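ok trying again, last paste got cut off:
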Amino acid sequence: MSLDSRDGDTAPCNTESLQHALASTTAATIVTVEYRLGNIGKTAQRAISSSQQISTDWPGPTSTEQAESKFYQYPTPIHDTIAGFDWIQNNLRPGQLVVYGSHIGGSLALMLALTEAQTVKAVAAADPICDWPGLDEYCIQKTGSMESPTKRPKKTVSRTVAPSDLIPLLDARRRFFPSFEKCFDKFASPILFLRSAGRDVPKNFPEYLTGAEYPVPVLQETSKTACAESNDTDYSISDSDVYTTDSEVSEQNDVPTRRRKALSRWPPYGLDYGLSGNTWSRPGHGIRRLQVALPWVRVFSGRNKASSFESEELSKTSTKDTNPEVAPTVLARQSEEMVSVMRRACFFGREKGYGERRVTLSRSDDHSGQDAANWLKEVFDGVLNDD
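nice, full thing came through this time. structure:
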């Protein structure tokens, strides 16, 4: 099962070459779920028109004219992915089901890993967008320095130049979500299945000053009211390596509150009465953690080359641990955090090293899907094991 978008500007690679790589390497049946997001192209319009002649249950527009004027936003891609997953289960009934997706498709694939873990055997995600609310952490709230309310020392983070993919992601967030609160949906931002967002939900999308004068986006304050509202939410970079339920509030009025991101265990607690059919419980009986194991997960993350301006700025602040020729992207950092959080949140009680074997991170700039296909073949062949 591969996840591809019907929005041309979000499709990360050629679908036919991806399908060929997956099919030829794994010798498996490939089903592509073309979820709808953004403006659908002419090819998709014809597919919708043709499918309507076959099935009356198609949820799309009733005519090509309507399809041309329709702009799809979240949660449509989530619904389409779940519908495709159900179709596979009901019609193909595969013995082994693995899922591959890239970018937005990668986030949808990880969503299935966390919600359909009893059915999905493995998930490969290339540069997934795991945390839409987290994009604001790469922006600056105001031009002046802002003291951190935390008492612990923070990592030194350079804000000389924003990641190269930050502006496109901010633009995509505004276009693909009808309201800011929809970004906080766990099915859209799968990392929120495993930890809190670390912030309140703002009322409106934040406006940022961008362009050559602002190498890092700066929150635009149009009035005193807007300034007051912006102080209700933190847009500063937080330490993603620390997870606690404590809230820390600054004593200064001009410094916003920053809540540390609280780690959540997966799977959640629930009622599991087994096969005995009992529908009641007494102390010590029937209430326990669901016996669900996370599928095999591999996240493929690449690093984009910095622009000439970024390379110049990075060279000024580079250290022995910094390569001025390569700028870590937002997606690369989110991939690292997603892997780290999954290892910590999904394997409580397991022996040391179990989470590191089940969830892995691979550095790869291969956008054809061949690296993912090779790894999925190992899954099918039983090469991977928990020992």
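cool. DSSP finds eleven helices and 14 strands in the chain. Residues 208 and 220 are 5 Å apart (CA to CA).
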